[in-house]
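Next comes one such specimen:
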Amino acid sequence: MAGKSCFRGAAGPPHVERNLDGWTTGYTNERIRFTPDSGESIQSSCDYATAGCANVTASVVQLSTPRPGASHYVELGFTSGAGSIAAGHDSGEVHLRFNKSNWSNFDETNDYSFDATKTAFTSWDRMTVFRGGVLVWGTEP
C-alpha cells in the first residue's frame, strides 16, 4: 500500500486496474492484506472512482487462520455497472479507504500488502488479483 505515513487512522492505496490482455475484459477483484493491530471493527469506504463509487464494492474479511502480516483483507470489487476495460486501457483511479471504527491509527509497517517505497502507481505482487474467485496474479502470504 502506498502512503505518505505508516501510522494513520485510515489506510488504503489509490488503485488503477490495467488490462494487458488483447481483448476487452471485465473488472477483477483485488485483495489488500493487513493487520488491524487491535480488536476494533474495520469499515471501508470508496472516496473516489472514475467508474463511480456506486460501482465499487469493498468487503472486509477476517482470515480464519492469520498469515504473516495478514489477519484480514479488504476485497475491492466492481458491480456490472462499472462496465468493462478495453484492451490496453485502464479502469481509471479508485480511492478506497478502510479504517478502524474508533479511527485509531494503523501501523502499516507490519502489513503484508504495505510497501513504503510504492509511492506511485506500479505493479505490486502483494496486492493479489482474482477473477471468478481464482487467483490470477500476485502472491498470497
